[in-house]
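Objective 1.3, modelling of assemblies. Example input:
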Amino acid sequence: MAIVDHSMPIGHHQSTAASTNGHSLLNGQNGIRSASFETEKCPVCGDRVSGYHYGLLTCESCKGFFKRTVQNKKQYSCAAEQNCPVDKTCRKRCPHCRFQKCIQRGMKVEAVREDRMRGGRNKFGTFYKADRALRQKNLKIPIGVSQNGANLNGSSVIHTSNGTYYNGQVSEAHVSSSTQDQAAQLAYFEQHNRLKVSNGYETLLQSPAVSNSAFSEFVMQRHAPYMPNGDSLAALLSHSMSDDPLLHRSGLVNGMSSGFHPPASVYSACVKPEPFDVYIAPSDTPVTSESYLAQPTNYINGFCNPSAVSYADMVPMVPSTIAGNDNRLSAHLLPVCPIPTEKSIDTVFYSGSTPSNILEVLSTRSQLETKRAHNVVTVANFSSTFSDPFQFCLLVMETTMNQQISWARNEENFRELRMDDQLRLLNRTWSTLHIIDFTYSFLMREFSYTIQLANNRECLTSTLTLLGSDEFQEEWESICNQLQQHQFNRIDYTAYIFLTLFDYSIYRDSSSTEELQSREGIEVFHSRILRAWADYRNSHPASMPLLDLLQQIKQLAKKAQCNLYKKCQSTEFPVPQLLKEMLEQPNLSAEYKSVLSPISSYTTS
DNA sequence: GCTCAAGGCCAG
DNA sequence: CTGGCCTTGAGC
Ligand SMILES: [Zn+2]
Ligand SMILES: [Zn+2]
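Predicted structure (tokens):
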């Protein structure tokens, strides 16, 4: 490599702390570690990452920029349309858009210390650690085909340079990492806070910064999406369309009046002293949606039409205890800017480049590993607190489903679908996706056979995987064995996920032209994945054992879902909101009946 | 003790 | 204002 001398991670130098080997990161025992972010690109500008800063892996300059901005409470404004591209070469040009992107990518204002205390560690440490562990692990996954690892991040393959419009998303294609960071963190921290709830006594009092800080920010963000009519999923999806609540606030939003500076500036989250222990709402089940205003029905095509959309009407869910201090959310929820959406999957997805690359690229760019990483963290967290296996499963499922949705809505292809399609697809496929994720995690030994719970109890991994059922354990184990025999790997897993998610059969019977169009888009994508996968496997879709297995998994998911539905009817534990809604979709009841009757003598009314 | 993210410094 | 390099210090 030509740039060898720059390859030492910056931020480390010999002069520090009498460390005997200042260059330990490059060689020796720690060599592996350095590799973990040596290849990473800053999710904000694409420059070389120097470590975790304010919540995620970023470069040194974005770190500095972010720090200065937050410390000095700077208010930038954009001379253009708030969608300036931000990359290494032009990041200086528009600080407004740069900062916006920082936030959007998940940098945390609350990690900037108000008291300016140096050194030490903060609460994000655990997240960094978990994230690092995962990245590392995933580096070691064998790739399978001739391609070598070097290509993993070379996603330059992927893009034509179309749109700079929507927050530069497209032009960022070269950034390999962390479009997921934010979602990931949210999920991560949510769990922590939720745990606090369940243990949590002390918390409420000792958090000086709580009232307007970090926490409420993230709670808002996290729960903002819930909707009044029980449409959590829709809300979760639509909320995300323009990303982060924190940002739409510097001055003129979409040409609206500029004088208004909501009290809840981003900086309010800047937290005082270090151990900012955030507390959580004193409810241990996910918040319900009573505090929402009615949602004017229009989220279906929401993201196409900025003015028609009623993001501003969506009042985020804030736990009642802290709800007092914010009505400022509406400002947050304004869409950042319209998203052009003639783009169909087809155009979004690149069209040239060899088929088998598609999965490679998807696998890398879609950050499936990160999603799974958070599943692992979720499990770890809940398992230490809960002792009842079913309750444990419910909570894990609820949380991971949130993560699933966050993941999906950020996924480059999925997010281009009409909202309506997104809803249907997720409604349709969540249980299968769950099973695939957990099964793959199991195969990767991210979970062992059983999961140790509190009070010395345990939960079979198969139970958790199968949505809390233990009836199908053998069937699942058999599937696992077969997957293993076929050397099911990361690429196969990626194919499984995408083939499942993009299930065009949801429109099998539809006749409206709109739906047919949707169906076609999804189908095209689906078949492209299928071809790529077959190509990768040197096989034909018609004769792929792994494809048969996927069908089996889908069947299994269906059964498991029915079972879960049944169990939820009679459980003593509260069924979390989102899960409940996913289970109780009206159109499913018939299906539950038909699936259940052959297996068991379950009788519905 | 060592780590490594956070703050500080300052030439450009 | 930027960003590369330097110092700190809680937590492991
Ligand atoms: Zn950067
Ligand atoms: Zn700009």
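Residues 10-11, 13, 15-17, 50, 59-65, 68, 91-92, 95, 117-122, 125, 274-275 of chain A lie near DNA strand C (CB under 10 Å from a C1').
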